Amino acid sequence: MKIKRQPDSKLHIFAKILLTAIYLWSGFFWSGVSVIYYIIEPDMTHIAVEFLISSALLLISLVLCWFRLYIWQFPFCVIGLAVYLQPAAELIRLANQREVYFKPSFELRYLPVIAFGVIALILFAYRFWQRITLKAAKQSEFDNSPTQSILEKRRDE
């Protein structure tokens, strides 16, 4: 039983554009700036590597969203988000300890990725719910059909 992907609504397209904007701001631009800056620091190269890996995972998640594979994108998003927030939290903690203020702040640079995760979770949950209700409706239709048609359906499969 193959389930066809439903076409996206305007709300889905808006959510994907919002995901792209958040990724470009936090996952691409500020993560890229951090990678370039911290790759030359001998004590901080782990931050650059974590940002690089997490940005790649978030990009995979974003691409899968654009291909309407919302269930497949979610694991990449969760893992990418977990890896991304570790160096971001470390940088925010260091900036607060040293009382250094940047414009924009590290919170505005890195934490919008949390909204990326929330939107990806909503898209995942909606698609998952949609699949479950579709399967339940097909099973109900099969269970309530006359005996003769059940035998014909079994034979055709």
Name the descriptors:
single chain, 157 residues, 0% strand, elongated
How are the elements arranged and paired?
Blueprint: H1 10-38, H2 45-66, H3 70-98, H4 106-110, H5 112-143, H6 147-156
Helix pairs in contact: 1-2, 1-5, 2-3, 3-5
Describe this structure in words.
The N and C termini lie close together (10 Å). By secondary structure, this protein is mostly helical. It is built from 6 helices and no strands. The model has no long low-confidence stretch (mean pLDDT 87).
Write down how many β-strands occur, each being a DSSP E stretch of 2 or more residues: 0
Strand percentage, roughly? under 5%
Give the structural class.
mainly alpha
N-to-C series of helices and strands: HHHHHH
The largest β sheet comes out as: none
Average per-residue pLDDT, rounded, comes to 87
- Using only C-alpha atoms, the radius of gyration works out to 22 Å
Number of helices: 6
Inertia-based shape: elongated
Unreliable spans = none
Give the termini distance in whole angstroms: 10 Å
Q: Provide the helix percentage.
A: over 70%
